[in-house]
Amino acid sequence: MMWKSYKILFGLIFLLTSLLEIKKCVVPGLFVAKENDTINSEHRDLDQVKKSKKLVVLTENSSTAYFIYKGQPMGYEYEMLNSFAQSIGVELDVEVVKNVDNIFTLLDSCVGDIAADNLTITSNRRKDAEFTTPLFTTKQVLIQRKPDNWPKLSQAQLETLLVKNPLQLAEKQVYVRRGSSFYERLKDLSNEIGGKIEVIETPGTETTEELIADVAKGKIDFTIADENIARMVSSYYDNLDINTAISFPQKIAWAVRKDSPELLNALNDWIAKKKKQGFNDVVFGKYFTDKKSAWDRQNSEYFSLSGGKISPYDDLIKKYSTKLGWDWKLLASQIFQESQFNPEAKSWSGAFGLMQLLPSTAAHYNIDSTNMSPEASIAGGVAYLREVDNYLAKFIPDKEARIPFDLASYDVGAGHIIDARNLAIKYGLDPNKWEDNVAYFLLNESLPKYYNDPVVSFGYCRGQEPYDYVREITNRYNMYRNQVALLYTKK
Fold this sequence. Notes:
Strand 9, helix 7 and strand 10 form a beta-alpha-beta unit. Helix content is 48%, strand content 13%. It is α/β, with parallel strands linked by helices. The strands form four sheets. Strands 1, 4, 5, 6, 7 and 13 form a six-stranded mixed beta sheet that branches. Strands 11-8-12 form a three-stranded antiparallel beta sheet. It has a two-stranded antiparallel sheet with strand order 2-3.
């Protein structure tokens, strides 16, 4: 009896340990994600990433890491990791971390596969994560405000009024996030100089860019930033000095969990290859050196961090999206896919305008193809989408489930989508589900086995194009949705 009791006890301990191991991946409420996101609760390395067809990156919403500009996702972290995701055949899913102090907790909790936010490699961080080969090096610099009369001062006079040596930070207040590498450096520096630096902790929701702005506006006197970001952001303000270094050069890299060695190796191989090709230098220059482009974005109403608009046609898109019952940002994503918001766009097939209507389609809706306004193009495109949606509603009652079918039909015609549904029925898959069901057969309608099948009426279809069309619109829509939510959260 006693042995049985021990067996039961050991069994319970084993079960509890297993459950705790699974639970370690569940940390809700620490990040800004898509409305219906779930948190991964399984180990994820490169094989699992490939099987899921999605690479999840945790990053910050900033003018250098990740943002939306004129409808296009951009940023150093986004562009680099999107290229890597394509190289391993998966989609990039960006999860914007609202409280950046939690980025390593979220990584360890399986919310994302990679943490990427201009992260400095430190010994403390190495305890909890593995870092890739460094992307570049930078140093930490002091952000301080010049005196109000600085234009009238000589350089020598100006320097006497500024902190030019870290020793001068003794007894001064410097504002940084506790979870940042700047906090660690200031604590070490305070010991090194033998005089206390008063380090004021700011919330993890306050970004480095916002702290730099607070210095420029006189709300605080000092903060710390990495030089690459400081040089770009300070170009928006003429009253900042960023020339006092407080660290030696430090390595910037991406972080992965310690149990993701295959992903780490793949990232390192890719980084080495791209450095040799010069790709990293080009992308770095685009976001950390090109100050004119940064200034243009910063002052644009189509910059997601400040303006909030996606396109010049947002009001029209909102008006006509109600006729479909769609979120307007989904329709905006489709219009970007069709024309990148260029009303003069024309394709090789003769399609034209914001929604790339064919002349025959435009004529069907009494639209003048020789003088089509942006509103007429959106109205015609939405009218066509409504016809398709009403037709597909006979077979697919769930409105949300119909969306990818509507989009694919818009791109390639409803006939090929019905063919793919018929193939799904024949082979025992769900004709009302898109991913891994109908989409699978659409992708394969270019193979004789399928386009010659008796259940197929419309023949050959190069299914990769409509499949990519749906995937890209959906991914961009999720990015639009997150960005708009973040903007209003900030406000």
